[in-house]
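Lab meeting, action items carried over

1. Structure of the two-component assembly. Owner: GW. Status: complete.
Input record:
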Amino acid sequence: MPITRKSLEPPLYVLPAVLFLLSIMVYPLIYLIDLSLRKARYLKPPMPYIGWENFQAVLTSNEFLNSLYNTFTWTAGSLALTALLGLVAALLFNEKFKGGNFFRVVILLPWIFPYVAAAIMWRFLLTHPFGHFNAWLTGAGFIHGHLGALGSSDTAMIFAVLVNAWKHFPFIMLMLLSGLQGIPQELYDASKVDGASYLQQMRWVVLPMLRPILFVSLLIFIIWSINAFSIVYLLTGGGPGSATEIITLYIYRLSFIGLDFGLASAASIILFAVGLIFSLIYVYRMREVLR
Amino acid sequence: MSWRISRKLELRRLIIIYLLVALFLAFTLPPLVIPFFTSFKTMSDVYALPPKLLPTPFTIESYIYSLKEKNFLDNLYHSAVVATVVTFLTLVFAVSSGYGLARFNFRGRRLLAMSVLLAYLLPAVALLVPFFVIFKNLGLIDTYPAIILAHLVLTVPFAIWFMRGYLTYIPWELEEAAMVDGCSRPGAILRVIFPLLKPAVLAIGFFSFITSWQEFVYALIFTGINTATAPVVIASFVQEAYVDWGGLAASTMIFSAPVAVLFLLFQRYLISGLMGGAVKG
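Predicted assembly:
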């Protein structure tokens, strides 16, 4: 338990953090709310208040609904694939075998590989016609025509999700590995004595014990996916058409290509609100940590 | 159970394990290895049909081209300046505020700690527009302060949260003892506590440096000719009408190398450190 002392000392240590949060988080957020209520095309003054018009315009536009839908498929697809890969990898590397530690570090490489580098290298491999993956996939009959994996609106999102999973499954694996190491050996032994098969052990011992950490790490991953920008932007630019335009790319397009900062602010607040729902669940989950 | 059966089971276990390892490697490695090979290919080999795997003949012309012709070194320098300053400032914030949150009980401590955690999860893109307008009004676009401030938004909350969690595991009797012996509190922090924080400082340092080094969307908007960081320039190569994949592969490898080296050097601190910060607190 931290010490209680009535002096000016404690606030002094926390003051930098408070000032920082106020100036660089709270102030921009207030600024954002103000901007979302104004007509702010090209940021050209005067920028009169127009009430909820920006929100109405965003919420009723098909482009926004499309971006919301894409954000949902992007997040849900990434979540399913990343969780599956992360779980299998964690169970695999929790086993003892020769070279296990070495291979685990190799598997971690995508996680530390910079986002920009990962997106661009995947784009290169999926480029038509000389990208290696594109050539293999076409050879195997997965891709038809001359558009390539990222050039067709049927497959672009699938490959964006694949790249996201490639980048993040090592993170889920690490989280779950630390969870697996917390399961006492006696539980395995006891279930073995009771005659449980490997799969039964998974179902009744391992998964229930992993649930808290699985929940928290997948929650973080959901938040990251909703906030993601660079992978999709660099892989497809939101295209073809707007097939992979997730909400962050939509905001970028509204503001820095369409130059309508009022509309973009309204969309930013909606993104903020969606993210906040998941963030609050996470913070609520972490409350025991703060005795 | 007889020895023969258990040996058969063990063999089956190992076959399944190595099969799965092979599958994971086949998924993980190609996007890293093939571009690595590509960066050493001649121009015509990069565009060979069907694609060639190995760089024969071997050449470093793509590296020379991207460093010399494209002035990529300037951008790497910008990235290094920004990432170094961000790392230093993040550590200052993390140690002082982390200490304050972990060691003292004051009104609003819980609320502040939770706000810090919430700030860590804030969507970066949602702040893109207000930051842009504020920086533009202050004339800060395409200056170091703008991009450094923006990157601090991404690094400081996690760093404070992480440091706070780490400090709760260090018994406070340690600095009490030093203070009884005549140290001031800052003196006690510096002499007694700081040396114990080495793993946390390394983890936060790595996290901040890497976050800033690879950050893309803020850099795309807030930097310009004078401050463009490496990710922005690499990304701009992709959007050119004619994409030079050889040069791009080479620039990407140069850009990613520091991250890989740092990771391999500090691996054992980072994995336990960063995981702990994200889950436990």
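2. GW to write a short summary for the group page. Key points so far: The longest helix of chain B spans residues 245-279. Chain B touches chain A through 100 residues (CB under 8 Å).
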